[in-house]
Amino acid sequence: SFNFKNITEIIYERLDRRIINLLRLIGVYGNEMKMPVYVVGGFVRDLLLNIPNYDIDIVVEGNGIEFAKYAAKQLNAIVVPYEKFYTATLVFKDGFKIDVATARTEYYEKPGDLPQVDVSTIKKDLYRRDFTINAMAIKLNPNEFGVLYDFFNCQKDLEEGIIRILHNLSFIEDPTRMIRAVRFETRYNFKIEEHTLEILKRNLEANYLERVSGARIRQEIEKILEEKQPLVAVRRLAELGILKHIFPKTYYTPTMDEKLERIFRFLPLIKQRYQNISDFYAISTVLLEFYDKETLEFMRNRYGYPKKFIESLKFTENMMLPLKSMVESKLAFSDIYKVLGKGNPYIFIHLSAYLDDDGQQYLIRYIDAILSTKLEKVTGKYVMEKFNLKSGPLINEILEKLYAMKLDNPSLDEVSTVEKIFEETQNKIKQAEVSENTNR
Ligand code: CTP
Fold first, then answer.
1. Ligand 1 center to residue 398 CA distance, Å?
2. Which of 53, 102, 271, 317 lies at a CB distance of 3.0 to 4.6 Å from 46, suitable for a disulfide?
3. From CA 353, how far away is CA 350, in angstroms rounded?
4. pTM of the entire structure?
5. How many angstroms is it from 129 CA to the middle of ligand 1?
């Protein structure tokens, strides 16, 4: 029938020769093991959309692990089995990977269940998946190579740009699919179909998302943030009410939207300067603004924010407005330093949410000054010996003063400047003594 057409031509037009050869071989090994084998899911979706995708997911009707071991031997690859899930990963010499699974009826294994090889058909395997666009398979065995298995009119949804669940329990089986729905909607500029949207909202209001571990929610949000249009996706999460079930005390106002927009504009600049910046923490700087202590502690437990991150967030929260005007009026770095200090990347990101483009540029100049400025000659030891001082807060005060001045003037002479700073502090101490005496 129409739903099982042969798409070999598309395969040859759109895929690399190397991938085609690999798929052909996998089909041959399927025959040798007497198992039907398919490539499924996102790979098929993107092939039909003509978008490159190198995540090959294989499903076997039979024993997936046995099949993977056999294929690995033939292909000179390493096999990493996950016995519990009847799945395996093939890892090739060059690092290329292929996932192999056994066709299954349940999306999730119930923990504690005895391993029972519950071999299912490809149709049932596809039915348990998230959305129709991800529920197609292409047969790989030689006699049927290139036949598209489309049981649920998936191709039609793909062509019409529709995100549709396959059955009404889909979001209950895996509530993170609510977030995935928005991710695919945004990525392909598709629309969640009406009935699916209704079920989504119903399950959302029944607090199914709250039953999922914070780690899994966070993973899905991180995936959304890796997409090309993260802000569009976050907006949609807010619009559908999903965001409220992830950040319960966040009000998605036009101001919040603008803050996020500014953060997304600033992120590439900060990533050029710091490694391992997490987009999830970055947006959290504003999403978690003005949270009460208890809810913050709850959020920290749920999503695994480092204690330091939360502490620094709270510490700097009330400084954002003063800092905004300082940066936008381009105050000297030494003055900003008095308030902001050396800061950290997430404080800078938080501040960037308050800054226009010009302000962000100035903040970047400040960050570059901080990153490139070091005291070369004058150290604590130097100050103590030179001015005959005992260790104490005064030493640090002098060094900080000198550092701040060097931020404004990178070529200043440390040795002569530190002398001036010391004289000034001496004068201040004397004046304080005089005024204390006259007050008496
Ligand atoms: N899947 C699912 N439910 C989920 C996650 C995944 O049914 N919660 C199924 C889908 O059929 C999906 C496949 O598993 O196509 C692979 O999942 P994943 O790699 O997470 O997604 P992709 O569809 O490959 O999307 P991406 O392009 O973002 O990798």
1. 58
2. 53
3. 6
4. 0.90
5. 8
